[in-house]
Write a structure and sequence with these properties.
three-stranded antiparallel sheet, disordered C terminus, about 300 residues, binds iron/sulfur cluster, 8 helices
């Protein structure tokens, strides 16, 4: 299930001011590093050099040689992509990492028991383990703001309009139009997030191409989660189900030895279940391809497909 909503990042407009990075920390009350040496000077404007349990979004800086006389900066956005094919959800046996009914991926820290499988499974190294409380953490897509009719804090703070928010299909159309505008000056421009990981809740316009903005060119779920996802199709319903459970148990049992059979991930409805029932009581019974997945807008209210608005 692709996210019905999306953040649009236009790297061609980004100035690297890091307003979004600060807004994310501020809204989510994420503390700055306090100990001397926790955030050492790296010799670039990029800081910190990777996300942590207390930094869920950062802007990356790379130098690009435009021609022999000119160098410019290419910016990247390092935060959760809210993937449709989300291995972090597939491997989470506690149900902490789950898909919200708007299709974005949420990590419920109250359910996280710190196994770090999501940390290992994410192809983008997004979830970070915090030894402050022994839990994994990542961007929440500002669910609390969405539920109150607000846009994500990062988007709200961007002074130059490099971030936008709305219905995913609108953001994709906007990205394609912008890429066409940029094409004469930036022949390598790419729109990233439309197909990668079956589609993402973050769409990026990358003038110099994905790699030059530090995006993973061909992201793949780890082999074990791909095998697990393929089992039902390969095996057929009976034996296949048993194999799927075995694979899930294998994944759930690695590392800590902890297994919690109560929680399962329903691959057809793409929701995390507790005792066979979706954990989110409001989760619609969504089958991939049905239009119901676009029916929840940013305010949590019912809306017709495509009616999601960029509410401030
Ligand atoms: S970017 Fe990583 S943490 Fe975010 S949804 Fe995708 S797999 Fe999960
Ligand atoms: S959506 Fe919210 S939590 Fe995610 S990066 Fe933006 S401000 Fe941070
Ligand atoms: S606030 Fe906007 S311009 Fe500033 S770094 Fe973030 S995306 Fe770029």
């Amino acid at each position: 299930m692709a996210s019905s909503i999306a953040i649009l990042f236009d790297a061609s407009k980004c100035t690297g001011c890091k307003g979004c990075q600060v807004a994310c920390k501020s809204w989510n009350q994420l503390p700055a590093p306090l100990d001397f040496g926790d955030a050492p000077f790296s010799g670039t404007y990029e800081s910190p050099m990777e996300n942590t349990g207390d930094t869920w979004l950062r802007i990356t800086f790379d130098e690009i040689e435009v021609d022999e006389n000119r160098v410019t900066l290419s910016f990247g956005r390092d935060a959760c992509k809210h993937c449709s094919d989300a291995p972090c959800v597939s491997v989470c046996s506690s149900g902490a990492c789950h898909r919200a009914h708007n299709g974005t991926i949420v990590l419920d820290e109250s359910k996280c028991f710190g196994c770090q499988y999501c940390v290992a499974a994410c192809p983008f190294k997004v979830p970070k383990f915090s030894d402050r409380d022994n839990k994994a953490k990542k961007c929440s897509f500002c669910q609390d703001r969405l539920q109150n009719g607000l846009t994500p804090a990062c988007r709200k703070s961007c002074p130059v309009g490099a971030l936008d928010f709305g219905a995913r299909k609108d953001m994709m159309a906007k990205a394609q139009r912008r890429a066409l505008e940029l094409m004469p000056d930036f022949p390598n421009v790419e729109v990233y997030g439309v197909t990668q990981m079956d589609g993402m809740g973050v769409i990026s316009i990358l003038p110099f191409g994905a790699a030059e903005h530090r995006e993973t060119v061909n992201p793949q779920a780890p082999l074990m989660t791909r095998i697990e996802n393929a089992l039902p199709a390969i095996a057929g319903v009976g034996v296949l189900g048993a194999l799927g459970v075995t694979a899930a148990a294998f994944i759930g049992g690695r590392g800590s030895g902890y297994t919690e059979e109560q929680y399962t991930y329903d691959k057809v409805r793409r929701v995390t279940c507790d005792g066979g029932k979706p954990m989110d009581p409001d989760a619609p019974i969504v089958k991939v391809g049905l239009k119901t997945e676009n029916k929840v807008n940013a305010k949590g209210a019912e809306a017709k497909e495509g009616e999601v608005k960029s509410n401030d």
